[in-house]
C-alpha cells in the first residue's frame, strides 16, 4: 500500500494538536511548490464543518496566480464541525448502516494518489493533510496515526507554538516514531514569548530533523476583502523571505536520497550478506534481491527500481509465509510495539538468575495456568528462540531419564531420542542431533542420535481425505494399498473415536515390534520421545496422522515404570520415556488451536513454544516442564542444576510483548471472522479436537483435483500444496517454478484495488506452503486463493 514515485514527491502533514496552523503552513508549502514545480496536489482526506471553512477551500482561495498548477481534493466531507468519527456516525444516522472501513478509506487515498501520479511524469509535489492531532480519530474511530500507517508517507510535523506546545510536539513525534513514520521536517509558528522553537530546534536537530519557525499569520480582519489581501501578503512574504523554500529544497533532497538508497540496496546487500537457506551461486543478480522498504499488516512494501515510468516504485507484496511463521497479528502492530517500548523504558534488559520481574512472572503464570501448560506443567524456562528452547527441552529430558535409570559417566553420553522422520527442531547442534540424517539440515558435527519412524500422513487427494501409510505399515494394514480413505477430515482428527478402530492395533504392533528390535540390536539407549505434533513444518509441511502420534506416546509410556513421585498433589510423573512436544511452529493457534494437547488427548512432559508467542516482533521461547522433570534437577548440589542460560533469558521486552500477544490472540480466537471460517468447515466453535482452517474448504477441494497437484492440506492458517514431481526433494524447484506467476502483481487495474498485490512465498522442494496471520482479512485470503488457483490452472 505504500506509495513512492520518482517524479511525485508526497508528504503527509500531521499536527501536534488541533489549531496549530496545519492548513496555514500547508498552504505556504503548496504555494512554494507551485512556484518551483509543474504541478502541486493537495489532498484533505476528511473535512468536517461548513464548506466555506474547509481547508481545501482555503488552499483554492490562496493559490493566487499559481491556481493552474494547484489541484485540490477532499474525499470525505461532513458539514457538522465535530471529530470525523462522530461526523460519520451522525451522517450514517441509523447505527446499523456501515461506516467507511479503514481499508476502504486508505484505498480511496491510494487511488487518488495514483490518478494524480498518472497525469504526467514531470516533477510534482503532493501534500496529504490530516485532521486535528496525530491521535484524532478517523471515520472508523481508529486514530489517524494508525489508520494512515499502511501508506507510510514521509511526514511533516506541524509543531505547537503555544504554552505546553513543547510537550505536545515531542509527544506527537514519539507517537509517529513508535509506528515507524519518518519525520522529515518540523514546522511551527514563531512565538517571542513562549519561544518553543528555541527548545525544539536543538532537540530535533540532534535527531537529524530540521526545524523551521515562521512568523504567525496576521489576525483575522472583519472585512473579507481586507482579510484576503492581508493573508495574501503574508503568504507572499513567507516565500520571498526564503522561509519555505529551504524546507522544500530539504524535502526534495531527502526524496532523492531515499530513492538512491533503495536503488543501491540490492548491490550492497549482495556484497554484505550471507543469507540463511540460500545458495548464493543461484542468485542471478540484483533483481533476485527483494528490497522491503516497510511492512504493515500482512504486506511488505517492496521497491522496484525498474518499474513502469510514472508508476509507484513500491508495490504491495503479501507476506505469504507470515514472515517465516512468526506473524500472529500482522506486521507493525501498534499494541505490540507499545508493549515493547513500555518494557524497554521500564527495564531495558535485566539478568534473570534468582530474579523476577512482572512481565516474566505474568507470562509464566499465563502459560502454566491458562495456556498450553494447564493441568500438567509446573515450571517455565525462558530462552531466546525455538531452537534454543528445544536444546533446553532435550537437556531436561536426557537428565530426567539418566537420573531415573541411575546412569553415570559414559552411559549418559550414549543416549538418543525417538522421533519421526522428517522432523526438524532447529539449527543448533543439539536440536539437529535429535533429527534423522536427511542430508539437508546438517553440518559436519551433525551426529544423528536416535531412531525415527516413517510416519503415516494425512492429506486431501482428489477431494478426499487420505491417510498414506509408509511401506512397513502398509504391508500390515492392507497389502494391496498404501492409503486409507476417511469419510471426512474431522473424522481423521477425532482421535478418541479412532482409538477403537483396527488401525490402532496396526500402529501399536508396528511400534512395539520396532522398539523390541532396536533393544535387541543394542546401540543407543533411547531416552526421550520428541515430536512435532500434527505437522512437521520444515521437513516439508508433513501432516502426520494424529492417531499414530497418540499411539506412539501411549506405547512409549507403557514400556516402563514411572520414577517415584515426590508429591501426591502433582500430576503423574513421566513413564517409559519423557515426551517432548515441539510446538514452536504448531502451537498458539497456528493450526487453529491453542495447543495440540486436547486433540491428541495426551499431555507431554516437556513442551516448547516460540514464534507466535511474541507475535513476530522479538525473539523469545518458553520451555514448559512437568514437576517430575523439574525434580530430576532438584538437589543441594549446584552441579546438578540445569546449568543452561542465555544472555537474554526472560528478556523483559519479549515477555511483555508475549503477554500482549496472547491477550490479543485469545480475543481473535473469539472473533466473528474465526466463527465464520469455522462455519464454512462445519465445525462447532470451541469444541475440543475439531479442525478447521482460514482457507476455504471449497478451494481446498478444487485444488486437490488439479492435474499439477499431488495432494493438498490445510489447518488453521497453514496451506500446503504438494506438486507432482518425479524427483521430489528439498532441493527441487518444482513448486517454486509452478507458482512463479503469483510473485508478480496483476496488471490492468489499480494496485489499490482488492487483490492487486504480488506474493512473497517460500517452498520446501516440491511443497509450496502459504501462511496467514491469525487476523488476516478474509478478502485477502480469498484473493490469494484466486491467485494460487489461476497459477495452477495455467500449468494444467
From TrEMBL:
<dbReference type="InterPro" id="IPR049704">
    <property type="entry name" value="Aminotrans_3_PPA_site"/>
</dbReference>
<dbReference type="GO" id="GO:0030170">
    <property type="term" value="F:pyridoxal phosphate binding"/>
</dbReference>
<dbReference type="GO" id="GO:0005739">
    <property type="term" value="C:mitochondrion"/>
</dbReference>
<keyword id="KW-0032">Aminotransferase</keyword>
<dbReference type="InterPro" id="IPR027417">
    <property type="entry name" value="P-loop_NTPase"/>
</dbReference>
<dbReference type="Pfam" id="PF00202">
    <property type="entry name" value="Aminotran_3"/>
</dbReference>
<protein>
    <submittedName>
        <fullName>PLP-dependent transferase</fullName>
    </submittedName>
</protein>
<dbReference type="GO" id="GO:0009102">
    <property type="term" value="P:biotin biosynthetic process"/>
</dbReference>
<dbReference type="GO" id="GO:0004015">
    <property type="term" value="F:adenosylmethionine-8-amino-7-oxononanoate transaminase activity"/>
</dbReference>
<dbReference type="Pfam" id="PF13500">
    <property type="entry name" value="AAA_26"/>
</dbReference>
<dbReference type="GO" id="GO:0004141">
    <property type="term" value="F:dethiobiotin synthase activity"/>
</dbReference>
<dbReference type="InterPro" id="IPR015421">
    <property type="entry name" value="PyrdxlP-dep_Trfase_major"/>
</dbReference>
<dbReference type="InterPro" id="IPR005814">
    <property type="entry name" value="Aminotrans_3"/>
</dbReference>
<keyword id="KW-0808">Transferase</keyword>
<dbReference type="InterPro" id="IPR015424">
    <property type="entry name" value="PyrdxlP-dep_Trfase"/>
</dbReference>
